[in-house]
Amino acid sequence: MEHRTGLEMYCVVDEKNNKLRYGYTTGSCAAAAAQAAAKMLLTGEKVEEVALQTPKGILLHLLIEDIQMDKEEVRCAVRKDGGDDPDVTHGILIYARVKKSGEAGIHLDGGTGVGRVTRPGLEQPVGAAAINKVPRKMIRENVEAVCRQMNYTGGMDVVIEIPEGVEISKKTFNPRLGIQGGISILGTSGIVIPMSEAALVASIRLEMEMLVKNGAGYLVITPGNYGQAFSKEQMNIDLTYSMKCSNYVGETLDMARELGVKGILFIAHIGKFIKVAGGIMNTHSRNADSRAEVMAANALRAGASRNTVMEILDSVTTEQSIDILIRDHCLEKTMEEVLQRVEYYLSKRGGEQLEVGAILFSSVHGKLGETSGVKRLCEEING
After folding, report:
1. Please, which pLDDT band fits residue 199 given cuts at 50, 70 and 90?
2. What is the DSSP letter of 58?
3. How confident is residue 9, by pLDDT bands cut at 50, 70 and 90?
4. Domain ranges (residues) in the chain
5. Do residues 124 and 130 touch, judged by C-beta distance below 8 A?
6. Which of 64, 91, 188, 367 fits a 20 to 30 Å CA distance from 274?
């Protein structure tokens, strides 16, 4: 009998009407393996399948492979399935090694094939395993749930391992970003949605058409999950007519103009829209990066010192660049320069009939600034 993961009903359709399967992230694999290992350690019974609730709300049923059990420690794996998304991690085994700890709580670390953070500015601190915060939360919550179920009140040591991760990391940008020795454990939703470019653009258009048909004249658009979360938590803006555009800023403006949208307010993380300040309208890293270069150029225009500009050029992330600008008291002026250029390129692509504005934010420091037309756009959006 064929194993069913829970993703069978989920797919996107590409430009040739082919159905592209959803998959699940390395973070989901790590959380499922940790859950299974913890259960086997506490019960002494083999676990060959687990149910995992993902942040996206999809319940997965994942098979457990390569089970190694003894009284002191259990090690097992889940095989990564990226669906029909092209991914160097597709098919590899993600392991969890679990043992009891004399110290209360869940103690999480990375082992062989999981990268180590070696430079500041990434999501995790220098020296930490490159396991992002959502997968960390998933792993801890699943192990904690097993402990509660088994009435175990002691601690647990959990180590995530990816034997193939050392070699795979050589095919990624991880070493350049300051992640050494392996790959990252990633994922914000636990689910991989196939990245057919035509299919994604078509889905954006379909959602925009639906909003327009339901009366939307002005739209609030975010590139992704960070912008959506910031909009809900920080901004007093009506999000009835809101949607995501992924990396397709230019295409989104084109279709909005074509569909008769009157205005768009973008709410975006600086890491995405610093590229727009350089005229880059598809913000995916495979098309262009230049984040540090664009930030450095605008800092120079704002009067930053040569040393500050050089530090920005050596920075790994835009959040790190923001910290440098704050330290040297030139963040506000630099953001003014950035926002002027963001406004110019958005307006140029949007045309005269489409009113466009942007609010930029940092995950650490909050709102960084807004373009000149945001106040009027907000009045229209809020009615």
Report:
1. low
2. P
3. confident
4. 11-192, 197-382
5. yes
6. 188
Closest CA to 7 of 83, 67, 65, 75: 83
Full-model pTM: 0.65
Count the neighbouring beta carbons within 10 Å of the beta carbon of residue 149: 12
Decide if 275 contacts 294 (C-beta within 8 A): yes
Give CA separation, 53 vs 1, 28, 98, in Å.
Answer: 23, 9, 20
| Each residue's pLDDT tens digit, 71-92 | 999 999 999 999 887 778 999 9
Phi-psi map region of 79: left, alpha, beta (phi>0 left; psi -120 to 50 alpha)? beta
> Does domain 11-192 correspond to CATH entry 3.40.47.10?
no
Burial track 34-63 (b if 16+ CB lie within 10 A, e otherwise): bbbbbbbbbeeeebeebebbbbbebebebe
Q: Are 13 and 19 in contact (CB under 8 A)?
A: yes
* Helix pair 331-350, 291-301: axis angle to 10 deg: 110
